Amino acid sequence: MTHSAINQSLADFIQASPTPFHATEQLAQRLVAAGYEHLDERTDWALKEGGRYLVTRNGSSLIAFSLGRPDQLHTGLRLVGAHTDSPCLKVKPQPELEQQGLWQLGVEVYGGALLAPWFDRDLSLAGRLTFRTGDGHLGSRLIDFKRPIATIPSLAIHLNRGANDGVAINAQTDLPPLLAHCHEPKRQLRDLLKQQLLDEHPDCQAEQVLDYELSFYDTQAPATLGLKGDFFSSARLDNLLSCHAGLTALLESDGAQPCVLVCTDHEEIGSSSACGADGPFLEDVLSRLLPDNAERIRALQHSVMVSADNAHAVHPNFADRHDGNHGPKLNAGPVIKINSNQRYATNSETAAFFRHLCDQAEVPVQSFVVRSDMGCGSTIGPITASRLGVRTVDIGVPTFAMHSIRELAGSQDAAYLIKVLTHYFNSAQLI
């Protein structure tokens, strides 16, 4: 695939994935279309030699695996990990607000969001609804309004003369999005959701929406931009770009080696959940692939995990926020992320292995180390390494404006990442 074709595929994937539920659904649909079989954790599995399978948990996390040639599992797994969630504004359980004749919804900040860019955007709403049907059964469906239905207006500078001096944003009082004028009887969100549910799923027979998990998102479509198309701009690049790259590489691999793609939820809030990287999801799946404990440990000690999560590119206006020798650049290839305090799981062996892969795939590669006087973020890499004992390298595509409502990457870097991950999935030898 060309860079432009890859970026269009990425744009389509992100546009269809406003929430982790939608991202997982998109991943599953593309895998099933490629011949992967959808397994259910609640049933017995009858895995076939050379089979290709996927399993989801909570509708927001997914693990896909290709078993490769017969009797290859003991030689080691090629694992790629990413996460489906992004910082956002989530709707509270009882969110209705009526202020100054306007109808708003109370929101809670999810993850370490950069809040200022959320103002004055055309927002929509998407997520999962759980409802009761007319015959008393429970059901769940995904909804997506798609069209702009809300905004968070800024306060005019005339009323806030210090706005450009850096004003703190109060998440409780400053962020409730504006949706409509009030009217009588009072608006109820669940009534609006029920109508949207029936519009999108007319066969669901919903009688009452009982609960929901909903997120606001920016409706602006992804775009390739710049005088020469050098940049790719979108919401949720962290970390749907890595999910898409892992998926594409898995589908383009030759299938000869045992490969695993892990896309889990809740990374932005620590991964501690039933479907997060710090939960048992991956271990549960691996224990069913390799039921014998000793055999599973041997296989994992032959395995490598590539934890793919975006990296900080050196910002031309804020270059002093980087270590002078470690400033990754856009369109210069994936970044190996290193931290001596194990905020990243990379060590010299796994870094060398990834450099070797990039050299073989003819992909440029970079390094990132945070300034010694600044705190360092983390990823699913150290969590997975500590839970499984698997050798891990943390890497990612360099980006600007991480955790903003709109992030920026190089237009060539998604293709670079897919190329090296495909080579990795096809590699007959690991470390």
From TrEMBL:
Pfam name, any one: Peptidase_M18
Highest taxon of source: Bacteria
GO molecular function, one term: zinc ion binding
Keyword field contains Metal-binding: yes
Broad EC category: hydrolase
Protein name: Probable M18 family aminopeptidase 2
EC numbers: 3.4.11.-
Gene Ontology annotations of biological process type: proteolysis
Organism: Halopseudomonas laoshanensis
UniProt binding sites for Zn(2+): 83, 158, 403
UniProt KW Protease keyword: yes
Cofactor(s) required, per the database record: Zn(2+)
Record GO cellular component, one term: cytoplasm
UniProt keyword list: Aminopeptidase, Hydrolase, Metal-binding, Metalloprotease, Protease, Zinc
Family: Belongs to the peptidase M18 family.
Xref: InterPro entries: M18_aminopeptidase_2, Peptidase_M18, Peptidase_M18_dom2
